[in-house]
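[agent] plan:
  1. take the single chain provided in the ticket
  2. run structure prediction with default settings
  3. attach structure tokens to the ticket
  4. add a short note for the reviewer (M.T.)
[agent] executing step 1
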Amino acid sequence: MNVYRKLSDQELTVKLDELDRAALEEVYLRFWAVLYDHARKMLRDDEAAEDIVQDLFTYLLTHMGHLNINTSLSSYLYRSVKNRVINHFDKDNNRQKYVNSLADFYNQGSYATDEKVLENDLKQRIEKAVASFPEKMREVFELSRNENMSRKEIAAVTHTSEHTVNAQLGRALKILKSKLSIWFF
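[agent] step 2 finished; step 3 output follows
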């Protein structure tokens, strides 16, 4: 017959202060189930409740002799579970705030900085490639892309045929494609 089963909670508390592991085993047997139910009611999560109660008993084991229990043992244990549940909710709230802030960061387009850098780089490469075109080709290309002129309008402004404008734009696009394909691949 186990002698510790007959001890009162106060006597078990004294034994815990004396580093008596058998007293801790009795506390575990006596209180684990009720503490688990208490945590489960607050959390509505079986695994989290079990983790909290196990964490409490781990704490008791590692701090035996230094527990300073000033109330009844059951009050101390229930209060410890309640505090751990509160900490659990705080951690979950903080974790959720962090996840939400990351989602907000992403949704606000903060990643757009990278896209803006890439866009500016592409613009510079295009401008550099266009600047390397022969003068007439550059003029035709810029009128087409920057001024949004039709090929007929460009032919009238540059005093060339529409066929020449088509040829100039075709060559300009081929050059751009060859110069920029390295950048994309």
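[agent] step 4 note for reviewer: The two ends are 79 Å apart (CA to CA).
[agent] ticket updated
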